């Protein structure tokens, strides 16, 4: 049996996932790296954690951050709990069964930051999926507005919401952020190669903040079927994914 030190050294390899369900992609790893280093003791909330990948990466990079991670799928949540124990991160991360559409906790309005890799495919589009895989990829149990509304409710003033979404839906993203008093502050377009269109965009928005948006230099993941140096510098976990 691997020790927690081995599990951490080879993270995200070895994480338990549903054998017949959705397998985590690069998105949560990139999201955690986009959040980056957090200074000081902070409290955070992850919406729709799945098997816990983004929370684990964030906690490993920021040992003073305490995270509450919610997930509605009980079978997936049970695996997240097992992963949490294997990585010995139970002092930093608490997992809770909850649905973003009606979630509310006593710390609402006090979280320093919220993060999420929400489902971003509409039903009836893309490759057909079922069960937990369908819930993870498609907007079955809460669309983007549900996630943004939940984030805004739980963030403190000037707190940040970090999330992953589709570049082609940025007009919707900005409209919903404005509706819930979240101001986009930083966006990063991620490309598979330098010659391909961006498939995902990483976004940071702040609650009750003034208008000021930085569009970062694009992140190119691959060159000649290898990870680029910039991609590995941005997210070292990629080489073990």
Q: How far apart, in Å, are the first and last alpha carbons?
A: 20 Å
Summed up, the helix count is: 8
Q: What structural class should be given to the helix and strand makeup?
A: alpha/beta
Secondary-structure element string: HHEHEHEEHHEHEEEEEEH
Number of domains: 1
Shape: globular
Q: How is the quaternary structure best described?
A: single chain
CATH topology: Rossmann fold
User: What's the CATH C level?
Assistant: Alpha Beta
Low-confidence stretches: 131-142
Strand content is 25-35%
Radius of gyration: 17 Å
Instruction: Name the CATH superfamily classification.
Output: Vaccinia Virus protein VP39
Topology, element by element:
Layout: H1 4-9, H2 27-35, E1 42-47, H3 53-61, E2 65-71, H4 74-86, E3 93-97, E4 111-116, H5 131-137, H6 144-154, E5 155-165, H7 170-179, E6 182-191, E7 198-207, E8 214-215, E9 219-220, E10 222-223, E11 226-227, H8 229-234
Parallel strand pairs: 1-2, 1-4, 2-3, 4-5, 6-8, 6-9
Antiparallel strand pairs: 5-7, 6-7, 10-11
Helix pairs in contact: 2-3
Summarize the structure.
By secondary structure, the chain is α/β, with parallel strands linked by helices.
């Amino acid at each position: 049996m691997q020790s927690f030190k081995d599990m951490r050294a080879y993270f995200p390899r070895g994480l338990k996932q549903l054998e017949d369900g959705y397998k985590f992609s690069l998105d949560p790893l990139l999201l955690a790296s986009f959040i980056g280093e957090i200074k000081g003791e902070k409290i955070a909330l992850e919406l729709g954690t799945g098997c816990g990948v983004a929370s684990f990466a964030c906690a490993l990079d920021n040992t003073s951050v305490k995270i509450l991670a919610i997930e509605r799928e009980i079978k997936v949540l049970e695996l997240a709990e097992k992963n949490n124990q294997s990585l010995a991160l139970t002092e930093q991360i608490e997992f809770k069964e909850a649905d973003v559409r009606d979630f509310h906790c006593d710390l609402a309005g006090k979280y320093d930051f919220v993060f999420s890799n929400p489902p971003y495919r509409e039903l009836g589009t893309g490759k057909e999926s079922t069960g937990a895989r369908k819930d993870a990829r498609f907007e079955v149990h809460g669309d983007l507005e549900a996630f943004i509304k939940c984030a805004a409710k739980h963030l403190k003033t000037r707190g940040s919401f970090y999330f992953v979404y589709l570049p082609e839906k940025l007009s919707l993203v900005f409209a919903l952020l404005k509706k819930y008093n979240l101001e986009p502050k930083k966006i990063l377009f991620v490309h598979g190669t330098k010659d391909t269109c961006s498939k995902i965009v990483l976004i940071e928005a702040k609650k009750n903040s003034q208008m000021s948006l930085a569009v970062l230099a694009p992140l190119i993941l691959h060159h000649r079927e290898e990870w680029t140096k910039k991609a590995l510098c941005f997210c070292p976990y990629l080489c073990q994914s």
